Amino acid sequence: MDSNILNNAAVVLFGTQFEPHYYQCLLKVARFKGLDKHEFIDSGRLHGNIFTLLEYGMSFVRKHLPIAARIEPGKMERVETPIIPFNAIREGLINALCHKDYNSLSGDIGLAIYDDRMEITNHGGLAPGVTVERIKAGFSNPRNKILAGACYKFCLIENWGRGIQEIIKTCMNAGDPEPEFLSDAVEFKVIFRFPRNIGPGIISLIGHETTLENLTPIEQEIISVVSSNKNISAKEINLKLLKPLHNRTIRRYLENLKKLGFIGSKGTTRSTTYYTT
Asked: What is the pTM of this model?
């Protein structure tokens, strides 16, 4: 804030009201059927500060990306592996939120999931003098220095320019294709290629694939949240949903999914936690 005038960085970090003056604080999410934008399976949009939009985007990712789970010999707990590491996706989304050009009211951030890839785009391209080759080599010259400094203090980013390198390293270590980075005067885009097409309505659970077409979108989202978290409570599940439900409603959904065999539970009434079966 300069001379008691709210600046863009303050709104991006801590804002609660964004319309009509801060339309650019917008994240659009979509799951498309197939390889292009002709048909939606799911979509949404939200105006919010950087923390709200980060959680909103990651909840959408957890809802739609398949997660394989397996039991390794000699280990008690299962190993859960999303088709693209969530840490790499989170880093890509943070970069988009942090380095976007917020001077343009028409700009937004997009997160699009297709059958073969996921794309994260942010308005404005790279800062002058910055190239894709340089940032892949570790060069850092953030457009929004105040915003970048605040994100560093909140431990969302680090200030050595290793974000892009970490995205690449994380994906490569997981055996996934190296992400692609594209930039022009209009936008910056990171493309995560899936090692296989995911297809609509499929999620991998504990060594088998379960078709979700017969479940409601809320039930599908609950299964995705539970499969992404070990021994999670009903309250914690509810907080991770895009639109939290009444306590009785979320418990009713959980009981139904238990009867169908999608999830299990353990613990007493007051300390019940849920897991994928």
From this structure: 0.67
